[in-house]
Design goal:
Blueprint (H helix, E strand, L loop, with lengths): L2 E5 L3 H10 L4 E6 L2 H10 L4 E4 L5 H7 L5 E4 L3 H13 L4 E3 L11 H7 L2 E3 L8 H12 L1 E13 L14 H9 L2 E5 L2 E5 L6 E5 L3 E7 L6 H4 L5 E8 L3 H10 L8 E3 L2 E3 L1 H13 L7 E12 L5 E11 L8 H18 L7 E3 L2 H4 L2 H13 L4 E6 L1
Parallel strand pairs: 1-2, 1-4, 2-3, 4-5, 5-6, 6-17, 7-12
Antiparallel strand pairs: 7-15, 8-9, 10-11, 11-12, 13-14, 15-16, 16-18
Length: 378
């Protein structure tokens, strides 16, 4: 039996470990022994291992003997963590979504003879797989990803809840957004170019610029138009823009009565309770992937994949954990079953181009009721 270690026991990491238990021996590691013990009490088949990923030697020692590492650490720790794991000669599926360029580690991965699949969630992740497949089928001219995770209940004033720390969400709202228009990389302020978009089962949502294209900026230079936008309930953007404009997201420390503190740290702490998603709180994920291109007969074709997914009350698994985590475990199983054997660092679009791999990912998700509905129009 294959031996797997999942590093990071948060909402998504724990869901991935539980899913992998269906076929493999799984060890779940995290810096929090309390969190690990809670999860093992619910799932006795899980092995657990307390681990601080900041300790490079401890990480390299911990991953010895495992056939695959699934990495679900916070983004600011991700790049260094997977570099450490690559240096230990281990294969990786990663969802830490770190800001650095993962392809910088490609030469090291090839040197160590390992496979590293990065950005393997819902977005980035599934949209990349779809783009990679249709890049083989059509001469693509346009790619657009609209995606958001939302609470089912809209609560004033933000109409939003986050399955992760507010500081990570705020980072999306402050980092310059890049997209590609007519072959040129355009840099815009985030939270701009707001548009209302209609979705079945949800209604009207607001889309806006965020820096979500990631590897697609560089791996698909021949596609002239590429864009990713985040979705929220209407009203959220205006309130967040007011906070941002007023300086509440500034990382620069200010002095208040002799205490030096950054507005960002205070804002994140204040928002933590308001934005915190409860363990059994109902939420949803909505995504629309749109592609336009020319087929072999010269016809204009538009392909659209739509996802609507909800919290599962039976397994008490959030939609964000399902849509993100099960994409990663699909890739992990695909790799372990020998469907993808290339060495190096691979964002999903470089794997989705293979029809067998793409079909495997979709089927795996379908079996877990994460269903992408496809329409094709000429």
């Amino acid at each position: 039996m294959k031996n797997i270690i999942v590093i990071g026991a948060g909402m998504v990491g724990s869901a991935m470990a539980i899913d992998m238990l269906q076929k493999y021996k799984v060890t779940l590691s995290d810096i929090s022994p309390t969190r690990l013990n809670e999860l093992r009490a619910k799932h006795p088949a899980l092995d657990i291992l307390p681990l601080d990923v900041k300790d490079t030697d401890a990480v390299q020692q911990a991953v010895k003997g495992f056939d695959l590492v699934i990495c679900a650490v916070p983004g600011f720790l991700g790049f260094k963590t997977i570099k450490t794991i690559i240096e230990a000669g281990k294969n990786i599926v990663d969802i830490s979504f770190f800001p650095e360029d993962a392809l910088e580690l490609d030469a090291l991965a090839k040197e160590k003879g390992v496979t590293v699949i990065v950005d393997c969630g819902v977005a980035p992740g599934m949209g990349n797989f779809i783009l990679g497949r249709y890049n083989e089928i059509l001469r693509l001219t346009d790619f657009e990803c609209l995606v958001g995770g939302l609470p089912k209940t809209k609560t004033w004033p933000f109409y939003y809840k986050a399955p992760f720390s507010p500081v990570d969400v705020i980072e999306e709202y402050t980092r310059p957004a890049r997209y590609v228009e007519n072959g040129n990389i355009i840099v815009r302020e985030p939270l701009t170019d707001c548009e209302f978009v209609e979705f079945d089962k949800v209604g009207t949502l607001e889309s806006f610029n965020t820096d979500g294209l990631r590897s697609i900026l560089f791996t698909m230079p021949h596609i002239p138009n590429r864009k990713e936008k985040t979705l929220r309930y209407p009203g959220h953007v205006e309130i967040v823009r007011a906070l941002k404009q007023s300086g509440f997201f500034s990382p620069e420390k200010i002095n208040i009565n002799g205490v030096s503190v950054s507005p960002l740290a205070v804002t994140s702490r204040v928002l933590f309770d308001d934005w915190k998603l409860g363990d059994t709180e109902e939420e949803l994920t909505v995504m629309r992937i749109s592609l336009k291109g020319i087929d072999e007969e010269g016809n204009q074709v538009k392909v659209e994949y739509n996802l609507y997914d909800e919290y599962n009350p039976v397994t008490q698994t959030s939609s964000m954990a399902r849509t993100t985590g099960y994409t990663a475990t699909a890739a992990a199983n695909m790799f372990l079953e020998g469907l993808f054997t290339e060495k190096g660092v691979f964002p999903p679009e470089l794997i989705g181009k293979h029809e067998t791999c793409f079909d495997y990912i979709l089927q795996y998700l379908n079996e877990r009721d994460v269903v992408y509905c496809k329409t094709v129009r000429q």
